[in-house]
Structures are given as structure tokens and as C-alpha cells.
Design goal:
With 464 residues, the chain is α+β, with helices and mostly antiparallel strands. It contains 13 helices and ten strands. Helix 1 crosses helix 10 and helix 11 packs across helix 12.
């Protein structure tokens, strides 16, 4: 399936939108000038981003459609999180058009907006399918604390934290009739009683890291209810070193415990929801270690946890949260660097951010091509026929003399062309070594586009 725009109300807008997506993917830059071949192309991009007939809702609707087509019939994991796009370094230049506001960065008046996507992955392979919803918004330019806004007295629907429930509901609406089932995964900010009371249904489950030591119906507390429970299984994981916290690399033994719990409705929760809810608590805790860097995850889920295998699967799905963090990393600092955009309107930066997020799915598909059996992922999902023909020429040039330096993959499979892009990005090509990462592919795409343009010019000139 070729990802892109299919419905914008005008064929010219569809063409231009897909042209921008293609250039963003192959050139891997946020700069409109670097993205465009000439002044005319640059003006066309600026006009597309400023066109009132192309709204954020239109873009998100097309992105959701791509996701629906990709994940039909699958069981999926939908991961939510929030990132801030901070444009404060452009505060004197950017147009305050109502699409940017304070970010309250470090308790000061920052400038920018927020993005809260629901990233959809295959529950078995982790293959990314796209986004079931993306909420994008900004606060007012006036800095006001929670105390000044009387945040605690606001109805849930008026709180910013309602984004977790809102995006969950939109995800249900987008995928309910498309997928076999879904698990919505959220971090501690999503630990909201109303969400547990309203979202789970026959095809939707929640898996959320517990934030609060909630009171249980039997009078005990959530965080201590497993204290006398025997370990139901264990495994070892590698904990990476962290210079910031001075943590050293270590092997950690993780013990798994789980049980059914009944949460009591909190005082702050709406009286319209059930007074108590039955869920399962899964605890993954590092044994024989104390201190702030001890691994300890307490996960609340509406899934019935009746076996150790199911508990371990929940821990694994929660670990997949790093995927959405990588989306944000590529969108911002390590990748497209959208926060350095030269665009003068906040609305344009927001639309460009959404386009980049769709392109990031293609980057993920390229990286994950190595994780699935050969032939399962078509090259058409990332490259046109002309681009594939050019890459075939590149493969001949990139292959070495020995068997280990040859491209081992068959034609038309995505792996074959990912191999070529990775080699252009500096990967040595040895299958026994570590597979290429996002950064290597991102660099390779830059070289690919430049070489592709030279090849196209040569081909056009030689046929005159």
C-alpha cells in the first residue's frame, strides 16, 4: 500500500500534498527551500501549508485512513503520548496567529504547541501502521498557573488531561470496525479513573502505568497489594548506562506478579461513572535492588491476566512506548528538527509537523523490514517504480566482491532497497552485524535523493 493523501477535495491539493510527502521522505529536511527544486516549487509548498482548504483535521483524516487500510483485520497496540514543539527561539519572527501559545517551559512563558498522537503497531510484530488519531493544540499566550485557572474544579472535559480520554475515544471510532481488537497503552499521565470506567469494551482494552497509590475496595492500597504475593515468574533484562543519572550498565532480574484488583472511585472523579472498577494489576519489579533507579512498573489493565505469558505480554507492550518517543525524537531534535523551522506562521509549522509524522512511519517500515520474513513487506510502501529501478543500479555499485558483501534479498521486497539505502548511509552491509538504525537510514535517504536527481537529469538529457 502506497501511503499518502487520497481525499482533500481537490486533485491539485492531493497531488501537491503527496509531492511534499515524497520530498520529505527522500530529502529528510524540514526546510522548504531545501525541499524544493526552485522558487516555484517553494511557493507551492508555502501555499499548501497556508491554504485554508487544507485543515489540520483534513490532514489527520488522511493519516487515519492510511492507518485503517494498513491494519485492517489485525490485533493492534495503540500507544499514546504527548510532545511539546517549542518555537520560543523564533519568538520575534513567528506570527502569533492563534496556533501557538505558551508552553510554560520550565515555569516560564515558552512559545509553541503540543502534539498527542495515537501510534498504531501490530500487536505481534510491532510493525507500525500509522496513527488512529492525532490531537494538536496550543495554550493561550497568557501564562496562567493551575492555581489561577482553578484547574482542580474544572470538569474533566475542560482539563488538558482529557486529551487521553478524547484520543482513546477517537481511536475507538477510527478502528472499532476495522481491527480484530486493540490495546491502548499509556504512561502514568493516562491513569485517570474516568478513562478506566468509560473506554474498555468488547474490542478495546487499556494498559496504563499506575500513577497514584489508589484505594481499593477491600480497604488496601494498590502499590502494596502484591507485597505478600509470591513471584509468578522472572526474566533478565539489560539496563543501559545513563551518564545523566550516573547509572551503570547492569543485568537486572525482573520479577512478575499479578492479580485482580477493584479500584474505588476517587473524590475528584465524576459521580456519573461507576463507584468501583475491576481491573488487573501487573507488577514488573527488579529483585534485590533498592534506590531510585530500581525497575518497578505497575501496570493497570482491563485485559484478563490469567497466565504468566499474558502478564509478560503486557510488560512487553508497555516497553514498546519507546517507539512513540522515537517518533518525537525524529520530528524534533534528531531528525527533521521541526523546532528550527523558518516558517513564519504557527499554523504552517503544525501542518508540516503532521506531514513529517506520516513520513516517519515510512522510516520505521524501512527499519522494521529486517524484523519480518522476506517478501512480507512490499517495496511499493516506500518507493515508486522509478525509484526502485534507480536503486537496482545503486545495488550493483554498492555490492562488494565477496558473498557477504552482496545484497541477499530478492527483487521487489522492501528489504532489498533498505539494504541499499543503509549502505548509502554508511552501513557496512554485513548481515551478521547490527541492523541499520533510523539515523543511518535517514542519512542514506539524503544521499539517495541527491543521486536520484542526478540520474533523472542524465536520463532526460540523454533521451533528447
Amino acid at each position: 500500500m502506497r501511503r499518502g493523501f487520497t481525499g482533500l477535495g481537490d486533485k491539485r491539493l492531493v497531488y501537491r500534498g503527496n509531492k511534499i510527502l515524497s520530498d520529505l521522505f527522500s530529502k529528510s529536511v524540514h526546510s522548504i527551500r531545501q525541499l524544493s527544486r526552485n522558487e516555484s516549487d517553494a511557493k507551492a509548498v508555502y501555499r499548501f501549508l497556508q491554504n485554508d482548504r487544507v485543515s489540520e483535521e483534513d490532514i489527520v483524516e488522511n493519516l487515519v485512513h492510511n492507518c485503517q487500510m494498513a491494519c485492517a483485520g489485525k490485533f493492534v497496540v495503540c500507544i499514546q503520548d504527548t510532545t511539546e514543539v517549542n518555537l520560543s527561539s523564533h519568538g520575534n519572527r513567528i506570527n502569533k496567529d492563534g496556533f501557538v501559545g505558551t508552553t510554560n517551559a520550565k515555569n516560564s512563558q515558552g512559545l509553541g504547541f503540543f502534539v498527542h498522537p495515537s501510534l498504531v503497531l501490530d500487536a505481534v510484530s510491532g510493525t507500525p501502521y500509522g496513527y488512529s488519531d492525532i490531537k494538536i493544540w496550543n495554550r493561550s499566550l497568557d501564562f496562567k498557573s493551575k492555581h489561577e485557572r482553578q484547574y482542580g474544579k474544572l470538569p474533566m472535559e475542560e482539563k488538558e488531561s482529557y486529551k487521553w480520554i478524547e484520543v482513546s475515544k477517537n481511536t475507538q471510532a477510527s478502528l472499532r470496525d476495522v481491527v480484530a481488537g486493540m490495546v491502548i497503552v499509556q504512561d502514568r499521565e493516562g491513569d485517570i479513573y474516568e478513562q478506566f470506567a468509560s473506554i474498555p469494551d468488547a474490542r478495546t482494552d487499556l494498559l496504563i502505568r499506575a500513577r497514584a497509590d489508589r484505594a481499593l475496595a477491600d480497604g488496601s492500597k494498590l502499590f502494596s497489594c502484591l507485597a505478600d504475593q509470591p513471584c509468578q515468574g522472572s526474566y533478565e533484562v539489560q539496563v543501559d548506562a545513563c551518564a545523566k543519572t550516573r547509572r551503570k550498565k547492569r543485568t537486572a532480574k525482573i520479577e512478575i506478579r499479578y492479580k485482580e484488583v477493584e479500584l474505588k472511585r476517587t473524590r475528584a472523579a465524576s459521580k456519573a461513572v461507576a463507584p468501583s472498577i475491576k481491573l488487573y494489576l501487573v507488577e514488573a519489579k527488579e529483585a534485590n535492588r533498592a534506590g531510585p533507579d530500581r525497575v518497578c512498573w505497575r501496570l493497570l489493565t482491563s485485559l484478563p491476566i490469567e497466565t504468566l505469558e499474558m502478564a509478560e505480554m503486557c510488560v512487553e507492550w508497555y516497553k514498546w512506548r519507546w517507539t512513540i518517543e522515537e517518533v518525537f525524537k525524529i520530528l524534533k531534535k534528531e531528525g527533521y528538527n521541526i523546532e528550527a523551522s523558518e516558517l513564519e506562521h504557527g499554523s504552517s509549522v503544525r501542518k508540516l509537523s503532521l506531514l513529517i509524522m506520516e513520513v516517519i512511519i515510512q522510516l520505521f517500515l524501512m527499519r522494521l523490514a529486517y524484523a519480518v520474513p522476506e517478501g512480507e513487506m512490499s517495496a511499493d510502501s516506500c518507493f515508486t517504480e522509478e525509484e526502485q529501478a534507480f536503486l537496482e543500479h545503486q545495488i550493483i555499485r554498492l555490492e562488494g566482491r565477496t558473498g557477504k558483501q552482496k545484497n541477499p534479498y530478492k527483487e521487489k521486497g522492501l528489504k532489498r532497497y533498505v539494504w541499499a539505502i543503509a549502505r548509502l548511509g554508511g552501513w557496512k552491509g554485513y548481515e551478521s552485524k547490527r541492523h541499520p538504525g533510523i539515523t543511518t537510514l535517514w542519512i542514506g535517504l539524503k544521499y539517495f535523493k541527491a543521486a536520484m536527481e542526478g540520474w533523472t537529469i542524465h536520463k532526460d538529457v540523454s533521451t533528447r
